[in-house]
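Tokens in:
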């Protein structure tokens, strides 16, 4: 076996590192692809005004995040994925999910979805934290600033959701009570008719 010259080995090693980094860059892009889709439906669906505005702003940012990732992936010789990641959503055990189906008011579901928004933003922060470590090791130009920018936007959204949770809840609370009262009245009505 002929021994490879040192520089050739180095080049191969570099290519291998970049191909590894590309997997994770595309994984982040797949997450943003899924995020765009979810944010589009969330902005339409939510009836909490300031949440709607925050989600719309973040939808614009997420589209830019996609573009930034697509650009660095292409520059590194990769092919930007159009596929979508599965977003992290907690699923309740069946018995609790059934209780919610039966009992939860529209306003409660809105809060549940806002909770999912926050879980997803947190997951994105965690993803970029790890990806930045890869980018530091592989050390290719322009990748770290892009990832830092995406991370900052995720962090801002995560912090907005966290800071505004008490307000979102406080605004939903009268609506929860009102809906619950209405439901109780309808049930009493049914019972009275049965008598
Ligand atoms: Fe995000």
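Residues out:
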């Amino acid at each position: 076996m002929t021994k490879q010259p040192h520089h050739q080995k180095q080049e191969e090693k570099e290519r291998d590192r970049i191909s590894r980094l590309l997997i994770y860059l595309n994984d982040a892009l797949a997450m943003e692809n899924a995020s765009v889709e979810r944010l589009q439906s969330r902005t339409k669906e939510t009836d909490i005004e300031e949440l709607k505005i925050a989600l719309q702003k973040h939808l614009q940012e997420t589209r830019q995040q996609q573009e930034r990732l697509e650009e660095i992936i292409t520059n590194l010789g990769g092919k930007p994925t159009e596929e979508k990641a599965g977003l992290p959503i907690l699923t309740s055990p069946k018995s609790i999910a059934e209780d919610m189906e039966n009992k939860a008011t529209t306003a409660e579901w809105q809060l549940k979805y806002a909770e999912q928004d926050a879980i997803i933003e947190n997951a994105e922060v965690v993803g970029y934290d790890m990806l930045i470590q890869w980018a530091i090791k592989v050390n290719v130009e322009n990748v770290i600033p892009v990832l830092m920018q995406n991370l900052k936007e995720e962090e801002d959204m995560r912090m907005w959701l966290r800071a505004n949770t008490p307000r979102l809840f406080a605004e939903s609370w009268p609506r929860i009570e009102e809906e619950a009262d209405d439901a109780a009245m309808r049930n009493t009505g049914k019972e009275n008719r049965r008598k």
